[in-house]
Write a structure and sequence with these properties.
The complex is a heterodimer of chains A (about 270) and B (about 200). Chain A is mainly alpha-helical and about 270 residues long. Chain A has a single domain (about 5-255), classed as ABC transporter involved in vitamin B12 uptake, BtuC (Orthogonal Bundle). Chain A has helices at about 10-35, 40-55, 60-80, 85-105, 110-120, 125-155, 160, 165-190, 190-210, 210-235, 240-260. Chain A is globular, with a radius of gyration of 18 Å. Chain B is an alpha/beta fold. In chain B, the strands form two sheets. In chain B, strands 5-6-7-3-8 form a five-stranded parallel sheet, with helices on both faces. The radius of gyration of chain B is 17 Å and the shape is globular. The relative contact order of chain B is 0.23. Classes of the chains: A mainly alpha (about 270), B alpha/beta (about 200). The interface between A and B is medium-sized, with 33 and 36 residues.
C-alpha cells in the first residue's frame, strides 16, 4: 500500500466533501427507515444520476443536474402522494432508463455514467464540497425542527389533520432535504455508495440502539467509520470508491447489526 | 361557542357522517371540560366513523360539528402504529406527543419508559399510547377502542389513567372514548352515548 498518497493535497477536497456527506446521509437514512421509505432513496439516487448526466449533456454542472433530478422526484413523491414500493420501483426504472439512454447518446456520457455508477470520489472539487457544506448546514438547521413533527406524524398520524395543522409542509421539507442529500451523495460518492450510506448504517442502528438519540448517533458514526475505512482502502489499493464504500458499509453494518436482536414478536428491521 | 370556560369544548348537531355513503347519524351531543363521554355501539354502528368526522377524517353529509375556538385534539386510533422495528424508548414516544418530562405515567407503566417500544407487549404499548394522549396538553382526547388487547389487569390500569387529572391544574380536558365494552364504559365514563346501527 502506498501511504504517501494520503498526504497528497489533491485528495483533501474529495475527502472533506465525502466526510460531511457520510455524516449526514445515515441520519436521513434513519428517518427514511422509520417512515419505511428507504427504497425511495434508491429511486432518488437513480433520478439524481440521470439528472447529473442530462445536466452535463445540457452544459450544466453534474451537481446541478443531479440536484434537479432528485428534487423533482422528491417533490412529486411528496406533493403527488407517490408513496410505497410501487412508486419507488417506478422511480428506479425511470432513473435507470434515463441514465443509460443519456449515457449511450451523449458525448462523454458513457464515461460519466460509469463514473456515477463506480463512485469516483476523487474527482470531487469545490462544487461538491460546497454542496456538501450546504447539505450539512441545511440538515443541522432543519432537522431539529422537522424531526419532532416527523416523529409525531409517524406514531400519531391523525394528529395534524385533527388539529388542522399543515402537516404537508414538514413532509415536503424532509422529502426535499432527503432528495438533496441523495443527489449530493450520488454526484460525489456514486449511486450505490450513497445508497449504502442511507440504508446500512440506519439498518444496523435500528437493531442495536436503545433509543432514538442513540439511533442517530450510531447510524452517523457507522457512516463516518465506513467512509474513513473505504477512503483508506480504495485509495491505497487503487479500487473504485463506490463499491469499496458499499462493501465496508455492509461489513461494518452487518457486524454491528448482528449484535442486535429483532423486536419482540414482530420480526426485525 | 366562546372562550367561556363553561362553554362546551365540542358540540355535535344532527351529524350524519361517513365516507362514500353515510355510516352514522344523525347524532347530537356536547362535551364539556371534565367529561369522559363513552360512545357505545355494536360493530358497524359507526363509532369510529364519528370520531373520524370529529377529527376531519370522514365526510360530513349533514349537520354541524362546532369546536371551541383553538381547541386542541389528540386522536388515538384503534390500532396504534406498530412498525417492524421502532428504536424509540417509551420516553421518546411520550416526547413525540409533547408530554411534559416531569409527568411520569402512574403504576407499572413507568417501568416501560426506558425500554424500546418494540420490546413491549401489545397491551403495554397501547396503554403507553393512551397515556401519551392523556398526559399532553390536548383539550379533547379521542380514544378509539382503547380496551382492545388489554387483559383485566391492564384494563384496570387504563381506568386509572383515565382518572388522572390534566397536565396542569387549570387545563380543560375532556375525553371521548369509543368501546364496545359497555360495562367498562359505565365504570369509567361520566356519561355514555349509545349509537344504534341505523341511528
Amino acid at each position: 500500500m502506498n501511504w504517501e498518497i494520503y498526504a497528497d493535497p489533491l485528495f483533501l477536497l474529495p475527502f472533506a466533501a465525502g466526510l460531511l456527506i457520510a455524516g449526514v446521509l445515515p441520519i436521513l437514512g434513519a428517518l427514511l427507515m422509520l417512515r419505511e421509505e428507504w427504497l425511495a432513496a434508491l429511486g432518488l439516487a437513480h433520478l439524481a444520476a440521470a439528472g447529473a448526466l442530462l445536466g452535463i449533456a445540457a452544459g450544466a454542472p453534474a451537481m446541478l443536474g443531479a440536484s434537479l433530478g432528485a428534487l423533482g422526484g422528491g417533490a412529486v413523491k411528496s406533493l403527488g402522494g407517490a408513496r410505497g414500493n410501487t412508486a419507488y420501483g417506478f422511480m428506479i426504472l425511470i432513473g435507470w432508463s434515463a441514465l443509460l439512454l443519456a449515457a449511450a447518446n451523449t458525448s462523454a456520457g458513457d464515461a460519466v455514467g460509469q463514473a456515477v455508477m463506480d463512485g469516483q470520489l476523487y474527482f470531487a472539487g469545490w462544487t461538491e464540497l460546497a454542496a456538501a457544506v450546504l447539505l450539512t448546514g441545511l440538515a443541522v438547521t432543519a432537522l431539529p425542527r422537522l424531526m419532532p413533527q416527523l416523529l409525531r406524524a409517524r406514531f400519531f398520524p391523525r394528529h395534524d389533520a385533527a388539529n388542522r395543522l399543515p402537516g404537508w409542509r414538514w413532509h415536503l421539507g424532509f422529502d426535499l432535504l432527503a432528495a438533496f442529500g441523495v443527489a449530493v451523495g450520488t454526484a460525489t460518492l456514486g449511486l450505490l455508495g450513497a445508497f449504502a450510506l442511507v440504508l446500512v448504517p440506519a439498518w444496523a442502528a435500528f437493531r442495536i440502539a436503545p433509543g432514538w438519540a442513540w439511533t442517530l448517533w450510531i447510524a452517523g458514526l457507522i457512516g463516518v467509520a465506513a467512509y474513513l475505512a473505504a477512503f483508506v482502502l480504495a485509495l491505497g489499493l487503487d479500487q473504485p470508491f463506490g463499491p469499496a464504500l458499499a462493501a465496508v458499509c455492509l461489513a461494518l453494518g452487518g457486524l454491528i447489526g448482528a449484535l442486535g436482536r429483532p423486536a419482540q414478536g414482530r420480526g426485525g428491521a | 361557542m366562546s372562550g367561556n370556560p363553561a362553554a362546551p369544548l365540542l358540540r355535535l348537531e344532527q351529524v350524519v357522517a361517513g365516507y362514500a355513503a353515510p355510516v352514522v347519524g344523525p347524532v347530537s351531543c356536547s362535551i364539556q371540560a371534565g367529561d369522559v363521554l363513552g360512545l357505545w355501539g355494536t360493530n358497524g354502528s359507526g363509532k369510529s366513523t364519528l370520531l373520524n368526522a370529529i377529527a376531519d377524517a370522514a365526510r360530513m353529509f349533514s349537520g354541524r360539528i362546532e369546536r371551541a375556538p383553538g381547541l386542541t385534539l389528540f386522536y388515538q386510533e384503534q390500532r396504534p402504529v406498530r412498525l417492524p422495528a421502532m428504536p424509540l424508548t417509551g420516553r421518546d414516544l411520550l416526547r413525540c406527543a409533547a408530554v411534559p418530562t416531569h409527568r411520569p405515567p402512574p403504576g407499572p407503566l413507568s417501568q416501560h419508559l426506558d425500554r424500546r417500544i418494540d420490546r413491549l407487549s401489545g397491551g403495554q404499548y397501547q396503554l403507553l399510547c393512551v397515556w401519551a394522549a392523556l398526559a399532553g396538553s390536548a383539550e379533547l382526547v379521542l380514544l378509539d377502542e382503547p380496551t382492545n388487547n388489554l387483559d383485566p389487569e391492564h384494563e384496570r390500569l387504563l381506568a386509572e389513567l383515565l382518572a388522572q387529572p390534566p397536565a396542569h391544574r387549570d387545563d380543560r380536558r375532556a375525553v371521548l372514548l369509543v368501546s364496545h365494552e359497555r360495562a367498562f364504559l359505565e365504570s369509567v365514563c361520566t356519561g355514555v352515548l349509545e349509537l344504534a346501527p341505523d341511528a
